[in-house]
Amino acid sequence: MRNILVTGATGFLGQEISHRLMVLGYRVLGLVRDISDELAVVPLFGDLLETADFIGPDLPIEAVIHCAGHHPGETEDVEALHEDGTKRMVDEARRRGIRRFIHISAIGAGFTAPTRFQRSKWVSEQIVVNSGLDYTILRPHLMFGEGSATFERLEEAANRPWAVLPETHELIQPVYVGDVAEVAIRSLWLDRSVGQIYDIGGPHSMRLEDIVRHIARDSHFFRIWTFRIPKRYAASVLQRLGRVGPILTGEEWAFLQHEVTRQDVRWLIDFGILPHSLAVYYSPLT
Ligand SMILES: NC(=O)c1ccc[n+]([C@@H]2O[C@H](COP(=O)([O-])OP(=O)(O)OC[C@H]3O[C@@H](n4cnc5c(N)ncnc54)[C@H](OP(=O)(O)O)[C@@H]3O)[C@@H](O)[C@H]2O)c1
């Protein structure tokens, strides 16, 4: 049996990847921190922020899919997990003689990106690019699907008769978590993807307001009020509103300001994916 190591195996994307890999007949070794986790994967206990060795079966591993990372809305310890954690995983792969490394970064990762999340993702990418491993880097936009913390909040907002949202004209390309999982898995087979970085945005560009409208589509009484926040104050205003439970945190809002105006279609072509649309996912018929 072929063994794949998935980090972040208890997370939103990591679970999706692990499940799909197991359906395909792979054995998944999931890096987990908690012994109490109910898991279908073979557990490898360890914490990327600690130096202790991972504890688990000593099996030959073909590839790493490195999903452990923070959600775009989180700010605590992002640098530690994305930078030190990725370095730790790269070293672990080298030590175990694993050459193939699929790294999950994020849209807008860049040295001068607006959020700590994206800047630390850029550093993590540099670690992977300079590792000497056969890497593929995936940069998903905001992912939707069951288990997304952001979409749970948007769904909650859309379940009320009204929503108040920060006004934003930037277009977001939400991407289905299953499509990102599929790309990560197909990267394992596709030699052409070695040494590539793929931006992964969904098929439709939409404003935040449109996303909430799609989610609330079957509610006839739903109304949205938008309010304008000057861009440079937005993060701090939303952070303050955070105390009363806003729909987005300041960090998430800043992350969503990254507009994917140019659809990077290479991932659709290279991996043969027909991406799921958010409008269909939230259609009253589905
Ligand atoms: N969600 C999005 O919309 C989005 C968009 C762009 C990029 N991304 C990136 O995609 C990847 C997956 O995101 P997600 O939404 O699936 O995240 P998630 O649901 O928050 O899952 C994060 C995973 O990382 C693990 N983890 C956290 N700290 C760790 C540590 N110190 N050592 C080992 N494992 C640790 C968590 O384990 P525990 O269960 O033990 O906490 C969990 O399994 C991340 O790299 C994220 O930055 C996400």
From TrEMBL:
Query: Locate the NAD-dependent epimerase/dehydratase domain: which residues?
Result: 4-201
Q: Which InterPro entries match?
A: ComplexI_NDUFA9_subunit (IPR051207), Epimerase_deHydtase (IPR001509), NAD(P)-bd_dom_sf (IPR036291)
Which is an annotated GO molecular function term of this record?
Answer: protein-containing complex binding
Q: Which domain of life is it from?
A: Bacteria
Q: What is the protein name for this chain?
A: NAD-dependent epimerase/dehydratase
